[in-house]
Protein 1
Amino acid sequence: MCPYQNPEDRIPVLQMNSDLEHAQLELLSARCAVHQLRLQYSSEDLARFGCREVLRKSAQAASALHQFYADVENKIPPSNHAAAIQPSPELIARAVGWISTYLQEERDYYWPVAAPVGGLCRARMRPYFASSLLDRVRIIELHGARVRIPEFFAQIRAFGFEPPEISHMDSVTFLDVVAFNQGLSERALFHALVHSAQIDILGLQRYAELWVQGFLKSGTHFTVPLEVHAFTLASRFLPPAMEGFSVEDEILRWVNEGRY
């Protein structure tokens, strides 16, 4: 949580955390890209046949990042997540209901003024998503306006958890409606469509249950498996893959393997 000693500090602190989250997204994308590299090539082959200058610069960048974040980590006060109140089954069920209701209500609110995915965006997404999903999803650009912060976030904070800063996210998925806090970007659209596909396959109730379970385990939305998978798949979309892949098949694989 981020205490504000002075109300005037709120805006700079929010901006700092927005920048921090953006950097975390970039790092997660890089981590996913490196993971794919590790799956395809051994360290011996990379060292022997890889471009030495690229390898050297990559290693230097990784080392510098490690040193920077290690220094910051050493200064972080002890987390209160471990001391957070462990929610009862009843409260967990209530949280699932909160999320399900919020997503449905916001979907119904934006649907009449949202537009279909068309043109170049649809063409770019077609190799990855089913046509039936692309036919149904609608998008809306808020251009500086922000999605509504749900009232139950205050109760989440009361139990020692910090909910995601959804007003600072590029996009938020409300079932089959995607709201962009600023303008549309292909990266944010792809990520959002992964969540639409997850909801399609899992159902809203199960999606909300898995989101709550993942959030309770990690205490941050970036490490909820549903989010991790969206980031992972997006890392394969940018830069564009030589060939498309089925996001739905990837989601079903994670479901069958119990990775959510």
Protein 2
Amino acid sequence: MNIEKIKNLGDLKHSGYQSRTIKQELRDNLIQALKSKKQLFTEIKGFDDTVIPQLQTAILSRHNIVFLGLRGQAKTRLARLMVQLLDEHIPVVAGSELNDDPLNPISRFANDLIAEKGDSTPIVWMSRDARYTEKLATPDVTVADLIGDVDPIKAATLKLPYSDERVIHYGIIPHSHRCIFVINELPDLQARIQVSLFNILQEGDIQIRGFKMRLPLDIQFIFTANPEDYTNRGSIVTPLKDRIESQILTHYPKTLAISRSITEQEANIAEEQKKTIFIAPLIRDLAELVAFEARESDFVDKKSGVSARLTISSLETIYSAVERRLLLNDEKQGAGRIADLYSILPSITGKIELVYEGEVEGIANVAVNLVGKAIRKRFAELFPNPDKIKKAKTKNPFADIIGWFNEGNSVDLMTDLSENNYRRQLASVKGLSELVKLTFPKADREEQSLLMEFILHGLAEFSQLSKHRLERSIQFKDLLGSMMNLNLSAEEHDEDDDRN
């Protein structure tokens, strides 16, 4: 259909165009997509066997939908991608504020215009992108915002009495006629406002300031909400929930690989960073593991959830931490280090909600603990588990490394250490390079350095070495010496107190 040649109602009738409801339109286009094996919702990772089939079934059933899931589970993204299933353009009566279908008008304006001009009624074509409306539910949203209200200025301008329906100023829902309309965080909408949606969902009636009118609104409703109302500001009223035909549960990525693919797709990394900075798979995996550990942590509120935005922000921060180091050292190329994981602490602390025990522990300590747990878990997958070595009483592959530190040696890995000095510091540790070459013989120079540093962090997490995070460095020492120094410092402090 050549829409450029269809200018008025007469042209539209002669073109053979047939009106469809938006739900039927979505259904028909989905059927065609499934038959042609067209890939839909490709931007969504990890939902192929769970959420997407349920969503497709809901569309085929012509249902209104509520996505229930914790924050950062792509609920709004799913709703926005449904626009792909709309027709590229639909005809609209020109000047109509309710997007009237020329063949099936519902507004007073469109009906009057068609009665006056007949087949000469002008039409315009509305693109699919313009047919998506989104509203964030907040406690201050009113019925007038959603449904409409009497407009005294319009009444005065048009010199109409308040009994004339033309004085009505329609809200966002009537303006979304023939569109996808999304209300995000539905529980935040006050109960009395939710009640105003009952008839719109079921019968198509609306009532505005005494005007009871039949407006057969054609809308695909989508709602998003949290299964547990962690904001404590409200809940979905039962009759409204009953009117939403399909309830679809979303979830977090189930595997590390899926989580990484989401992060790498969504992270906003500058082109110059991509060209000059290499972030190894090990560091990317550790950043993802932090989120997995947070979701299992007893310190983190599970009802609140841990958003996928945590790992996205973390990867962006790691790139920037490396970039800052390159700028300070006037270096052109660089790679991420294990210590760069601690640069993501601000990304963690801003995106997790703590339970009481976590508040007692402190947000900063919880964040450090999560990074440590991620390192510990990955270390046990790549190297022999120090705890198991101790129990089995077998030869300890870390003996030379631990022995070197027991001799009183230490390593200070400054945050801003140049690449050459970084390698030099790691190479000074006896047995470190040899263990990496033995375990990962195919690792290149950069990978060897990263794995050498990783061993130090891993041994510290398994209490084989001591690790102290200072303002500008991470210091590794022998565990026993560090404990003795701590005890001596405590005794000296007590002696000072006694003197005072």
Protein 3
Amino acid sequence: MDLEGAGALVTGGASGIGRAVVALLRARGARVAVLDVQDVHEPAEVVLRCDIADEAQVDAAVGAAHDALGRLDVAVLNAGVGGFGGLLELDAGEWDRVMGINRGATFGGRGAGGGVLGGGGGGGAVVAVGSVSGFLADRMMGHYSVSKAGVAELVRVAARELGPFGIRVNAVAPGTTDTPLFASTSRLPGYRARVAERAALGDVGTPEGVAAAVVALAELDWVTGQILAADGGVSLWSPIDPAESLGP
């Protein structure tokens, strides 16, 4: 897909990965509508305040974005929230908070599917932002992991359902990325250094690095239903790797 002149929608585009996606899409020539509950400081053609967990708000915002841009060719479903707590401690309120916001990919995907289809005469791309936590067993993050595993399966089902309309649906699964969400891990002694050491590329990711993967998936015309890990190789680490016993 050529992004020059394309209409693009980004949920959660006010900060972190979403903000980097907005900047890169515009650099490629796309016109961008941002949906977020936060104030948006990255330049964009359209800014709409929207709670991604609210079905009616999402439907209205997607429609408004389509009308303002005249077409929707790309939808990046990035908005989400983290959570921390052991399964034995989680109450229904915390579980529902994380699941409710992260299910926004369902509402956004549904609304954008129709908008993408009607925007450019058929066809388009939907890219969701999941997480490697959707397929890793991270302690203290059960509800977050379940929500992101759901995003991965949603992408596969949506790819089959929307494929006949020429709409490609994929996801990027970031690992540890230096965003405002990741900043909360500063209270965990040594966490950042440990993650960087275990990543094959030896560092924590950047929003710009993940955004490049998101935009690449939007541009690839013959790829759908795929989950691309943009994690610097942190998900390759194995606790039973025998080479670790041999030392540096």
